[in-house]
Amino acid sequence: MRPPGGFEPHNFQAERELKRGRTAVIVGAQWGDEGKGKIVDVLTRSFQVVARYAGGHNAGHTVIIHGKKFILQLVPGGILRPECTSVIGNGVVLDPLAFLKEVGSLRDAGVKVDGNLFVSNRAQVILPYHRMMELGSENAPGRVKIGTTSRGIGPSYEDKIARRGLRVADLLDTPLLRTHIENACREKNMIAHALFNSDPLDADKMFKEYAEAAEKIRPFVRDTALLLNRALAEGKSIVFEGAQGTMLDIDHGTYPFVTSSSSTSGGAVTGTGVPPTAIDTVIGITKAYCTRVGGGPFPSELLGVEGEDLRKRGNEFGAVTGRPRRTGWLDLPLLRYAGMINGISWLVVTKLDVLDHLTEIPVCVGYNVDGKQTDEVPAQACGYEKIDPIYRNMPGWATPTQNMKTIDQLPKAAREYLSFIEKETGARVGMISTGPDREQTILVDDFVQELGLEKN
Ligand code: GDP
Ligand code: IMO
Ligand code: MG
Question: Whose CA is nearest to atom 27 of ligand 2?
Answer without folding.
Answer: 294
